[in-house]
Fold these 3 entries.
Entry 1:
Amino acid sequence: MMKSFIAAVLLLSTAVAAGAAAPCLPCHAEKTPAAVAQWQGSAHARAGVGCEKCHGSDHDKIVRGEAKVGMKVCAPCHQKAYQEHRASRHGMGLHSGWGCTRNLTNRKPGECRFCHEEGDEVPRSDVQCARFLKQSPEMGEIGCNYCHSVEDACDSCHSKHMTDLKIVRDPNSCAKCHMGPDHPQWEMWQTSLHGTLNATTGSKTGPDCQTCHMPKGTHNVSIGITMSSGGVPYPAVKAQPARADMVNICSACHAPSFAKRELERGDQVRSQSLAILKEAEQVIWDLNDRGLLDPMPENRPPHPLSGQRLVTDSQMLYEDTSHIERLFFKMKKYDYARTVKGAYHQNPAYTHWYGNAELKMDLVDIKSEASRQKERGGKKGEGKAAAPGAEDELKALKNKFERGALSQEEYAKEKGKVLEKMR
């Protein structure tokens, strides 16, 4: 009797699936059989959610690649996941990437919704990404948008036609974006004790990405995060409740006092690393104030957002810069990130050797390069050392004051010291 019942249910679900996709199946079973097979084995097919429900009925638009199955297509049936995703850093993915494509001429009007709510002229975020703007369309699509389109693409994690949750519960699904020199969280986790326990005993003993960052299946992956993507600490009003959330997550396995102490150690590593980074940044700005960068910003292709001026914040480039800026890019984007993220992911090798040691050697390299630039007077091939004169010092101080690096009082004091030496 039970076998007959199961057979009837399967037959009914097959009939429901076939009916939902009836107009599409005859052609697509032949032209895209894998997609059809994946859909037929999905929860969507069993629920009678056919092709038109997600792709629409305008076949010409679909063929032209204009019928995007974005997040809002999924939202009506998946409201809880939609709202959680929108509240998370994944929900800001396109703000930091495609948010700046309004500067390009080849974007479609419909893409305004990446930055704006429907009918709202005020952007949800004014963050732009200069590095994306410097890339070719092909590199931008593959090298940038495959990860930075997560805001409007549920299939970034879930795949397109399959709905099996074991796909997204596997930490490998996170690795394609969260790996590499600038944010190797995957590698850090994999080679930490957490990763070792996960590989040998499973996720009940060894936590994975989803255990800590998607507790109880939430789509808000930013729970417990106390800093920006660039490692800048959040204000206390935002950081303190986030830290309490993370301690609560860690307490599923650890004593709360232990979790709090380890996270605070990570905070200290972050603060110490940021101080090293700031020291290096000031060296570069001092060269710029003295006109000694080679080449100076005014003598190279303009920055996509800031024109021909020095940029060392999150919009800094790795191309069309001086050599010392290239060293700083590695220091900030790779080594600082590895140090800090390594500390929070409990990976000693990434925190120290891949991170802290590299960070400190970067500072040595940057200081040495600055000394060479000063000795050369900023001119290629100049054989004699050129000691900076009083006029150069005064010019550098004036530039520092004008960009806000010195207060009026500090400027007057330092200027007085230089003038005193001239007497």
Entry 2:
Amino acid sequence: MLERVAEGRTDLVFEWLEDANPVDATTGGATLIEWCAYYGDVSAIRHLLAYGASLSSLGHNYDLAGAAFHGHWRLVEFLAEQGANVNDAPGPARESPLHCALVRPATTTERVVSVLLRAGAEPNVTMEPGVETGAFMRDSRTCGETPLHRAAAFGSLASIVELIEAGAHREIRDVNGDTPLTWVSWYQRDTPVLRALSFGEHRVHPDRESMEVYLVGRPVD
């Protein structure tokens, strides 16, 4: 049964505990509550807590950063309600939960961003530049970016708009002097995203189409 929990069947935790098995059992190098957090199963976590498990076993700040990274908005909300610090930015990189969430465009990311901002997450927090980050599971280093910089490259338009409405500054610059508009340009995001991050003298023509469309041209009668 424990192997099945580790493979995603966290619902089996209920049966495991009803059979008087230990709440602190481990499998695959992790405890039951850690597996439930990995899969974002808040109901199973609450059940484990009722049987004596502790959120502190999830690690620093209840591993809110991990929940944000994996897109588990329900777990993020639950952990924040239990006292996890939504502005915690540990380690040499000073990577906040918002930074951890904004590594891919997804509906789950949008939900996590919403939950964090509503819980008081600071949208203009900057990371320490030049530090290795595991957020992309690759050889990558930080640039002193804000959550809006990451959203410009990897987030959805909805997340970008919500960050700005929460007070994120479009003009803020990373260690290289680049704004989120620079990042959105590097990653060749769609026109609505480009328009949302434009500021000052930087404007997007209302009839703008992609360079691909311009280069293809079109037949004229």
Entry 3:
Amino acid sequence: MTRDRIEFVGAQRRPGDPLPTRLPQVAVVGRSNVGKSSLINALLGRKRLARVSKTPGRTREIHFYEVDERLCLVDLPGYGFASVPAEVRQRWTPLIESYLSTSPGLVGVVLLLDARRGPSQDDRGMIDQLARLGTPTLFALTKVDKLSRSERHRATRSIQETLELPGDQVVATSAVSGEGTETLWKSVVSAVEEAAS
């Protein structure tokens, strides 16, 4: 897949709103400020496709990006950030849960975890929800450029052991250096191809 043709095709603002795509979807989820928008831009080779903000909780709706008319990368609002007002979080939670549990085109999820921290309680809640739904999930450790090589290795192993994951289910990534983004992209494409076979 060349990623030559990438298009923002719309957003879902409320549970039950029609989805703007019929393509197979891979959703990107994670805590606020974990680097979702930056990683989406790096995966798709674009600088400003997904809007990046220093303020946690800027993404307040679900954004859909079609790639080469073959798959759709889906940017979900971040979860678990204390500075986001409670009423905003209360709107997001049903939106995220509704999308994850009812979208007929969802074939997989990439769950982002900050490489410098272990999984939070919110991360574990999301992991449990995805397991209950039976959604195939890849784990991307973000911001590994902020760690030394040995720290990256330790962080990756720690996540694998803590969450009892096979090695190929965890990818260390950096939106800054590009590390791991091609490996993660190939895994995204494989998830779509496996769902179609």
